[in-house]
Amino acid sequence: MLSLTLDKIDIPSSSSSSPSSPSSPSSSISAFLINVFVMSGDHKTVIKYPSEYVKLNIGGSLHYTTIGTLRKHDTMLRAMFSGRMEVLTDSEGWILIDRCGKHFGTILNFLRDGSVPLPESVNEMAELLAEAKYYCISELAESCEQALLKKEREPEPICRVPLITSQREEQLLISNTTKPVVKLLINRHNNKYSYTSTSDDNLLKNIELFDKMSLRFSGRVLFIKDVIGSSEICCWTFYGHGRKIAEVCCHSIVYATDKKHTKVEFPEARIYEETLNILLYEHRNGPDQELMQATSSRGAVGGGPPCTSDEEEGERSGLARLRSNKQNTN
């Protein structure tokens, strides 16, 4: 920081020019020195009452607090505002400190209360530790170091798969994430009809594929599991940018020996295809439509085995009986 004082420069007097003349060398040099001094800031000591407020500019982050808060603990801030050290101020009276102001609010809260919640992120905790060491806040620095050591000893999970507990939670998860979303709905509570012989195996295959994909692509895709119950039994749903892109329904109602059965399938190729398609929504506003058509093997999104309700099945079976009776009559 550049600062100049007039008492260190001898300005030669001139008999041919008046000191008050605008064109005199002394007045122009004085004006230059005064401008440099104001632009560069002012060094001064701060001696105020503890209840008085001061304005702090920490790397562009503005804070307003009392002298008593800054002097409360034995830190560098107490020394700065005790009157023994000079502090730098700008033309508007803001005290300048050349540090990042991201965590200075947390520093002030610790000075006020003697404790503060630590950040969850390891990077942010390390940043707070660096600031605590700079301001010589030993208690806060020790808390950060202990928390970092504890996090190093804790095993970090490879991936987290949220388990939906309500529709509102599902909407929040899908709308707040920036990743593509794959949701698997598993509902074994719907036991109105008996299952076919291969349904249990196929249901387990769907679950195993979901687990494998969540382990492999958890860094790029948000995988969520829905077990709160609905009319569906096994269904994959794919989302991009908060909206539904495709759906793969893995169950259907089939007829055998005058009884309805629930059939669960394992369309592995379709599931992989839709997962690859939603990766097109990664790091971009939306997929290229030509690219989507080139990678799609069907005309409409969400095709596959249809999911039918009991009412629709009843209507279809009734129409089928009417047609067969009419044909027999003819």
From TrEMBL:
<feature type="compositionally biased region" description="Low complexity">
    <location>
        <begin position="11"/>
        <end position="26"/>
    </location>
</feature>
<feature type="region of interest" description="Disordered">
    <location>
        <begin position="1"/>
        <end position="26"/>
    </location>
</feature>
<dbReference type="Pfam" id="PF02214">
    <property type="entry name" value="BTB_2"/>
</dbReference>
<keyword id="KW-0539">Nucleus</keyword>
<dbReference type="InterPro" id="IPR003131">
    <property type="entry name" value="T1-type_BTB"/>
</dbReference>
<comment type="similarity">
    <text>Belongs to the BACURD family.</text>
</comment>
<dbReference type="InterPro" id="IPR000210">
    <property type="entry name" value="BTB/POZ_dom"/>
</dbReference>
<protein>
    <submittedName>
        <fullName>BTB/POZ domain-containing adapter for CUL3-mediated RhoA degradation protein 3</fullName>
    </submittedName>
</protein>
<keyword id="KW-0833">Ubl conjugation pathway</keyword>
<dbReference type="GO" id="GO:0005634">
    <property type="term" value="C:nucleus"/>
</dbReference>
<dbReference type="InterPro" id="IPR045068">
    <property type="entry name" value="BACURD1-3"/>
</dbReference>
<dbReference type="GO" id="GO:0051260">
    <property type="term" value="P:protein homooligomerization"/>
</dbReference>
<comment type="pathway">
    <text>Protein modification; protein ubiquitination.</text>
</comment>
<feature type="region of interest" description="Disordered">
    <location>
        <begin position="291"/>
        <end position="330"/>
    </location>
</feature>
<dbReference type="InterPro" id="IPR011333">
    <property type="entry name" value="SKP1/BTB/POZ_sf"/>
</dbReference>
<feature type="domain" description="BTB">
    <location>
        <begin position="52"/>
        <end position="152"/>
    </location>
</feature>
